[in-house]
Amino acid sequence: MDGVSLVEVLGVSKRFGGIRALRDVTLEIKRGTVHGLVGENGAGKSTLGKLIAGVHRPDAGEIRVAGRTVDYHSPRDALEDGVTLIAQELALVPRRSVLENVFLGIESNTLGLVDQKALLRRYHELDVLDFGLAPDVPVGLLRAADQQKVEIMRSLAREARVIVMDEPTASLSPQEAGSLFETVRRLADGGTTIVFVSHFLEDVLSLCDTVTVLKDGAVVRTAPAAKETAEKLVLSMIGRSLETTFPPKHSPADDAPVVLKVEALGVPGKLSGITFEVRRGEIVGLAGLIGSGRSEVARAIFGAERPTEGSIWLDGVPVQIRSPREAVRRGIALLPESRKQGLMLRRSIVENVSLPHLSSFSTGGIVRRQDERRAVAETFERVGTPAARSLASPVGSLSGGNQQKVLFAKWLLSPPRVLIADEPTRGIDVGAKAAIYELLASLADAGLAVVLISSEPEEILGLAHTVVVLRNGRMAGTLHGDEADTESVLRLAFGAHATGAAA
After folding, report:
1. CA 488/CA 285 separation, integer angstroms
2. Eight-state DSSP code of residue 251
3. Where does residue 239 fall: left (phi above 0), alpha (psi -120 to 50 degrees), or beta otherwise?
């Protein structure tokens, strides 16, 4: 770390339609440091990272790299200048192999032909994180965590002097995140500058040299990470202390009927013997390690996977759900693990939220726009998303957290009987997480049957009345009430006995 500013942001402002994302932002990022950006969803941290990496252009102000004013028109321009981005929403080519994605655009070639042997040699030299990904596997077949690894390797392959990492650990296990942090530190020690956008405050404090706090599109302060604490950051981000992370937990009535029952459910090569039930007003959490089968259970219930074994019951009646359309018709809603699967980013907020409910606003095939807009605006009051005047804005212009809330609004406009929420707080900051927690708890209190899937044990334990732990696509155990604690969940997830021996 030489103390020289490599990136300077001077009076930068940015708008997306009626939404002001950044206003008069000024900060310096030193060469060879890890500089953290934190703030609530919508605070502007991801937008600032994308401005630096050429995804967006500022409306006002300037950005300097190595003392030179830059005006990147695209990420390619930035990459040619040694600046690259690992985005929160991955940008990979699903049908191409891991190898092809990592070196896309910078392939080794001889007489115009790609030199596969040279690429493989470079690939194995590059795998300093020891991710162990097979180079010939199509990226589209990898789970989210492994796709994130491909993005990280692709960034390292370009030997960028500035790497913007937007929520890079959201899909990684603690062990994988630890390996990433070691690599980030080695990169910084070697002179690479890292801009680290994250909602994991403890990660920011342990990894970063400097932290900038943003609120409502403006810089609150920049300070050495060593002088910050998680509590101080929260106070600056949301203007209040976050004393209680989780809302009070109200158990369902003793005579609450079973709304959803899953019995011995199986999907070839993915799931086997999955059994649990969800009562009216109950939150059942699906816990387990990445790859344990949690998302596959959600997809099987929702009709996106076709079970070959077992049965699904709704209100005591066995049902066969052959498609997501049929699941929606029966009152089952799914918030998918990836926001891209549930949103049309180029369409407006109103269009995204009202899409599954258009028949409620149509007369003779013509949509009653005023009624549609009013219903969407009223739904937003429950989830705390953008004001009515911004409803015409494209969903792609929103922060990741607000996009997630649009997904909630999409299903709450006409409340379902069963809500399956798969990683509902992924990529969301601490303040927005608390709002999502309150929302989930209020939905259960109102009588909804909720299935919650999360990679964070404390999130499952803080919200769920019953915890179902999966391991390798099978039931590892079910914990009720006070039986569920962090140690019990992790022992089941890792397949360990009480003595710590492997099961």
Report:
1. 14
2. P
3. left
